[in-house]
Amino acid sequence: MKERLLVVLGPTAVGKTDLAVELALRHDGEVVSGDSMLVYRGLDIGTAKPSLEERRGVPHHLIDILEPNEPYDAVRFGEQAEAAVKEIQGRGRLPVLAGGTGLYVQAFLEGYVFSEVAEDAPFREEMEALAQKEGNEAVHRLLQKADPLSAAKLHPNNLRRVIRALEVARQGGETLSLEKKAGPASHWLEQSLVVGLTMERSALYRRIEQRVERMAAAGLEAEVKRLLAAQVEPTCQSMQGIGYKEMVAHLQGQYSVEETVATIQKNTRHFAKRQFTWFKRMPYVQWFDVGQAGWREEVFSLVRHWEQTGSRCT
Length: 314
Prior knowledge:
By secondary structure, this protein is of the alpha/beta class. The chain has helices spanning 16-26, 52-55, 74-90, 102-110, 121-134, 136-146, 148-153, 159-172, 187-190, 201-218, 220-229, 244-251, 257-279, 295-309, and strands spanning 5-9, 29-34, 60-61, 94-99, 112-113, 179-180, 192-198, 286-289. Helix 5 (121-134) packs across helix 8 (159-172).
């Protein structure tokens, strides 16, 4: 069997998980998560982590592999995803990479690396204090001066990545800008079919709002309380995810439940918009509008043809 990698990507709430599982069932596959939040144990409701029932017996990789207080980044993801994909291929099965974290998926597929600079804890604390005092935009403005290219790619509210980019620029004059590896590192893209799911914005935003309401009803507040009681600090990377940071603010008395739900909905809509922007930069994605009749059959036909012939065109 020729090595293959099937990728399903798209914005949050568009239906990636369901399609990835269905394709894995049809093509003797296993799912590899490309989501930066699903790696954390105990973060289930706010991450929309697929339940065992939703996984339908399909093996899933890179889910529940870290404690909530551990850091995670694109480099670590790339190493683990490569190991998982090779292991699945070694068993003669089809790996299905299902991703919503654009940086992780793109860096993996295209064979990019990142600058390696040691962490500077005092500098990070200084930048976090600045953000607390003057807002995330103040830190982002510093990055615009130090590394405009990275600043253009990072949202001011992605404070952890903004500070990291500043840290790198400050220590070595290098940048966190994606940089191509030399050699065969990009072979994943050569053997991949990349399917993207899209949807009319207003319809997707309705889905997002409904999903957040379901999360609240399913006990998101109680989940965050359990994490805090287990000594997971609000400053941990895992707790900076959408849904978690807002609920922490609610538990600290800053917002009502209604205000918190509305804020999570708003921030998730903005996140989906940024995902659209990121994925549109990837010219090899074959897009399918889930609002159009027959889109699933079109995907199934394309994947079947690709499996049989290696061609990405029907």
